[in-house]
Amino acid sequence: MTTSPTPTAPLVLGIESSCDETGVAIVRGQELLGNAVASSLEEHARFGGVIPEIASRAHLEAMVPMIDEACDQAGVSLTDLDAIAVTSGPGLAGALLVGVASAKALAFALDKPLYGINHLVAHVGVDVLEHGTLPTPMVALLVSGGHTNLLLVRDIGNDVVSLGQTIDDAAGEAYDKVARLLDLPYPGGPHIDRLAAEGDPTAIAFPRGLTSGRDMQRHRYDFSFSGLKTAVARWVETRRAAGQDVPVADVAASFQEAVVDVLTRKAVLACAEHGATHLLIGGGVAANKRLRALAEERCAAAGITMRVPRPGLCTDNGAMVAALGAQLAMAGAAPSPLDLPTDSSMPIELVHVADVA
Ligand code: KG4
Ligand code: ZN
What we know:
This protein is α/β, with parallel strands linked by helices.
């Protein structure tokens, strides 16, 4: 669902380059007009993970073609734009630089305001393009190869707090590492998702990280997947050492159940404890079928409405940046300075970098 454009809805171009996707999109208010994404994923596949230098070079090559494509799709020219938004953090330093330098050049040449925005908050803000204005307070669970965060959103423009995050591997990273030890291709999430559907999720009792009584006091909304990954590795090694076959589907299903059990349990708890009636799930792992099913089941039991943007908006893209940029512009937020720095570890509380001079 999208809202119809109003005369005051700003036309915003958004640029995303924090990891391996070069995304450029154009949004008018809460309406997506053009969304171009180039990915360097295949160039990283043989290394089993994203190589920052390869990602930066790929952004350099893809940036101008993606800007042109987004404008073509939207049927607008650069001079029509009201503002430029860009991910200024968190992410890979060299990759962020390409997007931020491009956005500054556009903002300077067109004499339009620049908004340097937080990638994690943009993962939440993107949902206005699909499901309309965000109800608040809302809890957001962001799960991808790079992040696993639980956020409390009271105002998408200036009041977002971190409730918890992973203390080691990201959820998607755990999927990718377990897939690797099961000899599945990178990225492993979709392969485990598919295989798990044929396996028994109760076959092996893998650990649920940070859910014991003591951990629930110190790390109530935090996650840990490193112990789970090690437990899967040990289990598989023991089978192999004994000359036994590894029941890959059962391992995949049991591992996956451990991940989604903890993710959904803590997300629903966060909603209940913060008076949130809506849970948003974003990031590449939001495509996971079992995560969606269990989250839906547990949300329904707790009277919580689940919002998940469509897969193309869950993974990294320029639309999320343009959408948050438009919301900031509509709220009258101060733009960023033209010497906007990148911040690879930008704190979640900083929704965008305002010019305080
Ligand atoms: O958001 P994303 O495209 O990129 C970033 O990491 O920023 O997320 C990619 C991650 C990978 O780790 C991939 O294995 C995981 O999302 N993923 C999945 C599924 N589809 C992608 N994990 C579990 N189940 C899936 N269906
Ligand atoms: Zn992301």
